[in-house]
Amino acid sequence: MTIFDLTIDELRRRTSIKWTRWEPDVIPMFVAEMDTRMPEAVTEALTRAIADGDTGYPEQPIYEEAYADFASWRWGWDADPSTFRTSGDVMQGMRHALEAATDPGDGVVFNPPIYPPFRSIIDATGRRPVEVPLVDDRLDLERLARAFADGARAYLLCSPHNPNGTVFTRAELEQVAELARAHDVTVIVDEVHAPFNGPEFTPYLALENVGKAILSTSEAKAFNLAGLKAGLLAASPDSLPALRSMPDLVGEATSHLGVIAHTAGLDGARDWIVEAQAEIEANKRLFARLVDERLPALRYEPSRGTYLAWLDCTPLGLAHPGRHFHEEARVRFNFGDDFGSQYSQWVRVNLATAPAIIEEAVEKLGFSLPSVDS
Questions:
Q1: What is the pTM of this model?
Q2: Contact 187, 155 (CB under 8 A)
Q3: What is the pLDDT of residues 196-205, one digit of tens each?
Q4: Of the candidates 253, 268, 283, which is a domain's last residue?
Q5: Tens digit of each residue's pLDDT (9 = 90 or more) over 9-63
Q6: How does DSSP assign 100-162, residue by residue?
Q7: How many structural domains comprise the chain?
Q8: 185 and 302: one domain?
Q9: Residue 372 domain-assigned?
């Protein structure tokens, strides 16, 4: 089985953001869509639902049960499906969790560089952003402790981290939980990229004595199902009242076909996700080698999580690397300053694609830089 084998011509038939936002000659490696076919189990479940006219509203807790079973298989976490409820997607779930756990004006901690919607939901809910940047891609626990002691009421944790792909250790997460408990901070964690990791990943709610914590997740990334909306929220015992206080509209945003698709992936595409992880790791190694060969001023060290690469382009001396690569190389990445104003020299690269596309893209990057011997 090979998952990332679609050609550019096949992919350009798609009509989603990734393949229609930019000019036809641009290789898109920005938004977190994977260049894959749908797993067979998901295709079969959706085809059956449509043939049966099963396109109404969701009711049965199949998604919650499938996620709990998957979590036991993948991470050894015995999750309780009764502590879950559905949502529209991860960020909608995080927004409702933030509203349930805090009040307007409360401080909310996050770790730049960070997926841009983290900032957006803090601003949209009238909360106060508190930045605790990562240091060498790891959590700055001392500064995190100070932020909690200074009165922050919630912490938005991205695990694995987006954009840099850090998979936090159990020990790091246990220290976060200890600090959060000590200062009565609710940890709201996005684990949407977690399925691409096995036992090396620790679900936050799997920790003992975790205090106040709410998980927001989905299989949108795992099986490339962003167009089929279905998210999950879960809570620790201390945060169950907050979870249950959320309005009914949280679950009403869930698509019935989304529930069917995500459930089918969790139940029937486990070999697929293991293969995807292996191919992603191979793509990261390929990207590292190609960067070394074609862009020798730069260094990329593969991360353990996500299918994204976070690349520091400072040594190239470009005013804005992301714009240069788009305009001159005809390759589009996410601009680093979207993840924090101080990261304008960085780009986020989506490596969930065919190796041949990665090779072509890096070759274009090299040719766009006259100072590089290509």
A1: 0.96
A2: yes
A3: 999 999 999 9
A4: 268
A5: 999 999 999 999 999 999 999 999 999 999 999 999 999 999 999 999 999 999 9
A6: HH--TT-EEEE-SS--THHHHHHHHTTPEEEE---BTTB--HHHHHHHHHTT--EEEEESS-T
A7: 2
A8: no
A9: no
